[in-house]
Amino acid sequence: MIGGGAGRWESHGAGSHAPPDEIMNAPDLPLRSIDELDFDNSFARLPPRFYTRLAPWGLPEPRLVAASTEAAALIGLDDGALATPDALQWLAGNRVPAAADSLAAVYSGHQFGVWAGRLGDGRAHLLGEVRGDAGPWELQLKGAGRTPYSRMGDGRAVLRSSIREFLCSEAMAALGIPTTRALAIVGSELPVQREETETAAVVTRMSPSFVRFGSFQHWAAADDIDALQALADHVIDRHRPALRERPDPVDALLRDVAQRTGELLARWQAVGFMHGVMNTDNMSVLGLTIDYGPFGFMEGFDGGHVCNHSDSAGRYRFSHQPRVAHWNLLALAGALLPLLDGDRERARAAVDDVYGPAYDNCFARLMGAKLGLAGAADEALLVGLYGLLQRSRCDYTSFFRRLSALPAMAADAAGGRHDAPLLDLCIDRDECAAWLREWRARLATDARPDAARQAAMRRCNPKYVLRNWVAESAIRAAREGEYGELRQVQRCLARPFDDQPEFDHLAAPPPDWAAQLEVSCSS
């Protein structure tokens, strides 16, 4: 498949997948109010050197900016539970639930490929976990004040970045991509200095776990083998108990992380998602998308696109993301060496035996579904496709969505009339037409009627993704105290595969005013 051999993991594609049960299942819990949440904090039962207990700072005069009904349902919260005055104080960090155990965790990591030493939750407070129908969800307040790990930071988040994280977390979940979730945003008029003066906000994030690759790296760097073992035991026993039955649970854990990370990266490439800052402290050991900052969704296709303005060397460009994930996994393997008898070949094999096949197989399957094929996509078809996309700078999402409407037989294209919307996206219409002939030749083996195949393609080719200009427009309105646009975008992105005529403008390429938008690590 494309990306094999020496150029392995340089491929790009699109598609969808069945959501992981433990992340996406709708709960059957009885709905309750926020005061009825029963907190636990299993992370707090690790030795005290893993964290610092401290209360969040809170926000003056907080107001609810947005809330996710879907995320709330995962922990059995009633639809209106987040809009009450008591809930607002809780979400702002002004009142910690009685059963919660607020703490900030320590970790380390590589940032842009350079060892950064001790990092940690510099502006996040973990309250504990609440059990949902599919298992426990840790709740964390992001932007709730300084911690011992803030370094030179102020411990705050601003409304701009909080809106981006909230929208993208929930959009990725709706796309079926493993991710942390966002329960709510609370804003305040408290000034926060970034490149300019902005206002403060707190995002309540949810995840089965916030443990990162860098969490293990921290204890390996400190040569604290007991802590390293304790963390591995915590992750295995709490999140992957089946691995305890394997001959070597730590080796099995590393292989599990490699498998999930490979599939996650295939899904990112599939939908055209760019994380922007794939540092090892931003990589989840559960294979979740975590820490939304300078992210982006591909618009005019460019495999070398760098979505993070702070990434001057282009380390995290779109085409390089799968290779960076492999590099990060090897860093995790290095951290786990003391628990693997110091056997470097064994640690490397635990990554290499699993990651490449996981990525390649998932990518081929997703691309097959994306293209409406009966099976996995073949390399020749993909090479031609991505060459076409690169040369034409086609809008990534629009190309595949329009492809979903085309007939399988050229004779049914009515002299090119049905193909015209797709051909119009390409600089060289003849090149596109030639590729369509190859695509239709592959479809000849599929006995499905056009209507069934097209419907299947639409189910894995989103019409709506969170384009940067869409997020920016909602942010500008929210800064003026108008949250209606934000909530409309949220509503649209909750159903990314459905035609929603009232939101057709949100599927458009950037307007002229947004052509020069940039996002950076402060985003």
Can you put this structure into words, describing what you see?
This protein is of the alpha+beta class and 523 residues long. It has a domain at 24-211. It contains 17 helices and 13 strands. The strands form four sheets. Strands 1, 3, 7, 8, 9, 10 and 11 form a seven-stranded antiparallel β-sheet that branches. β7 (124-132) and β8 form a beta hairpin.
In brief:
The chain has helices at 21-24, 69-74, 85-91, 159-174, 213-221, 225-239, 249-271, 321-335, 344-352, 355-370, 379-392, 396-403, 420-423, 429-443, 450-458, 468-479, 484-493; strands at residues 39-40, 51-53, 63-67, 103-105, 108-111, 114-118, 124-132, 135-142, 157-158, 181-193, 197-207, 273-274, 296-297. The protein has 523 residues and is an alpha+beta fold.
Task: Produce the secondary structure layout.
Layout: H1 21-24, E1 39-40, E2 51-53, E3 63-67, H2 69-74, H3 85-91, E4 103-105, E5 108-111, E6 114-118, E7 124-132, E8 135-142, E9 157-158, H4 159-174, E10 181-193, E11 197-207, H5 213-221, H6 225-239, H7 249-271, E12 273-274, E13 296-297, H8 321-335, H9 344-352, H10 355-370, H11 379-392, H12 396-403, H13 420-423, H14 429-443, H15 450-458, H16 468-479, H17 484-493
Antiparallel strand pairs: 1-7, 2-4, 3-10, 5-6, 7-8, 8-11, 9-11, 10-11, 12-13
Helix pairs in contact: 4-16, 4-17, 5-6, 5-8, 7-8, 7-9, 7-10, 8-9, 11-14, 16-17
